[in-house]
Design a protein that fits this description.
Layout: E1 3-6, E2 9-12, H1 17-26, E3 32-40, E4 50-61, E5 64-75, H2 79-85, H3 87-109, E6 118-124, E7 127-133, E8 141-142, H4 151-174, H5 178-182, H6 192-216, H7 223-230, H8 236-246, E9 254-256, E10 265-269, E11 275-280, E12 287-289, H9 292-302, H10 305-330, H11 336-342, H12 345-354, H13 356-371, H14 380-384, H15 401-416
Antiparallel strand pairs: 1-2, 3-4, 4-5, 5-7, 6-7, 8-10, 9-12, 10-11
Helix pairs in contact: 3-4, 4-10, 6-7, 7-15, 9-12, 9-13, 13-15
Length: 427
């Protein structure tokens, strides 16, 4: 039985071969298996909500040699960690996404789905399991999270995201089963059951940010931005929850990925090293809300301020133009202009800047994971054992120089653009 250290997770990678073979047959792959070899499916620190395995299956199909990699996702073994991070609810939501939402929207997105092919999502004798196509064998790779996400990569992401959102919009307007399928999704962060935990996560991220800014405030430049941020203590989660959930019944709601950042995207490059395609994965947080939240989530967690200063408006224009191109190709002719008017350039931009503080909130939360030192990963099992709040632990044992630099730029960006001045009454 193979075993290894998966980030902070000591786990076994083997599976019940006969049961896995049965699941593959159920998915339409009638392989006569000769061997299955199991390996870690992600790099240390890239995943803390699930165990990800890669399996190489060798055998024959109809007397023809067969060799293919699959990705297997399992629940983490630690019950305390699963309870703390609400991993059970997240895994259930991802199963629903692959079984109910992705098949629905494939009808409207053509043959090239932005997600990996799912062969099985459900349960076996060992619990929840998801079996996916291995994107690496299709030429996709993850981009180094510490490298700059340049304009070319962002353009590919914006175009792919617009195709997904367009499929959601068209399905919502034309498919009578849309509500039945999307009702299988559950909110895993901005809901009453998760409120206590994630409110503390938000407060902890504000504390880390202010501590970092105080450390960098040698010339007083950050004094006023710190004061602005201070007003959000114990209030930011409630504001973001209101933002995310207030438009659930709006005609402009789409199915959002919910956690679109650099670690959940894989790219394919051409021979000149230019990105030509991308895929999204990890669908645990999929939800129905404004398309602005996917845009903000990606841009503020995965790019640096220099790119946003130069290209934020350009990227929004690319997203909207691509969205309209999808409508022109796939919307019913009698409805196309009405849909484009509903999802106009002005509407998308208005939503993005209306909810701009979501970009700040999610960046403060995610940046420690984006910038962490891979040689300094905490053991989350030990930390979460007997712990019921996130106050005493962080994704990184020590916040890095890159974190301090990016968090400073982020807060100055919001302050200088007057994005703290939202028309919101705090409760």
């Amino acid at each position: 039985m193979a075993s290894s250290v998966f980030g902070d997770e000591k786990c076994t990678y083997s599976e019940n071969v006969e049961e896995l073979k049965s699941l593959l047959i159920k998915s339409g792959i009638n392989v006569d298996v000769n061997s299955m070899d199991f390996f870690p499916g992600s790099n240390p620190g890239d995943n803390y909500m699930t165990v990800v395995k890669r399996v190489l299956v060798k055998g024959t199909v109809n007397n023809t040699d067969f060799q293919k990699n699959f990705i297997i996702k399992r629940q983490i073994p630690s019950l305390s960690r699963r309870q703390l991070y609400r991993c059970d609810e997240a895994f259930k939501n991802e199963i629903s996404a692959y079984n109910h939402v992705i098949p629905l929207l494939k009808q409207y997105s053509g043959k090239d789905s932005p997600f990996p092919i799912c062969f099985f999502a459900g349960h076996d004798s060992d619990g929840e399991i998801i079996i996916l196509d291995d994107l690496k064998q299709l030429g996709f790779q993850m981009k180094n999270r510490l490298d700059d996400m340049d304009f070319e990569h962002c353009t590919v992401v914006m175009k792919e995201l617009s195709k997904w959102h367009a499929a959601s919009i068209l399905s919502k307007r034309t498919n009578p089963d849309y509500e039945k399928h999307t009702s299988r999704l559950s909110e895993i962060v901005y809901c009453q059951e998760a409120e206590h935990f994630y409110k503390q996560i938000y407060n902890s991220s504000i504390n880390d940010t202010i501590e970092s800014l105080n450390r960098s405030n040698t010339d007083g430049q950050l004094t006023e931005p710190i004061q602005k941020l201070e007003t959000f203590r114990n209030k930011l989660f409630d504001l973001i929850k209101k933002y995310v959930t207030e438009g659930n019944n709006s005609p402009t709601t789409v199915i959002c990925h919910g956690d679109l950042w650099v670690n959940n995207i894989m790219f394919k490059w051409n021979s000149q090293g230019m990105p030509i395609e991308c895929k999204f994965f990890d669908l645990q947080a999929m939800r129905c809300t404004s398309p602005a939240f996917d845009i903000l989530h990606f841009i503020f967690t995965s790019t640096k301020r220099s790119l946003r200063d130069s290209h934020l408006t350009n990227l929004l224009n690319i997203y909207i133009s691509s969205l309209h191109d999808e409508f022109n190709r796939n919307a019913p002719s009698e409805d196309c202009e009405a849909i484009k008017e509903l999802f106009s350039f002005e509407m998308i931009k208005k939503e993005v800047f209306k909810y701009i503080l979501y970009g700040l909130a999610v960046a403060m939360w995610i940046l420690p994971a984006v910038t962490f030192d891979s040689n300094n990963i905490p053991d989350l099992n030990v930390i979460s054992e007997g712990n019921t709040s996130p106050k005493e632990f962080k994704m990184a044992k020590q916040l890095t120089i890159e974190y301090h630099s990016r968090i400073k730029d982020l807060l100055l960006e919001f302050y200088e653009n007057q994005w703290f001045s939202v028309d919101v009454e705090f409760q």
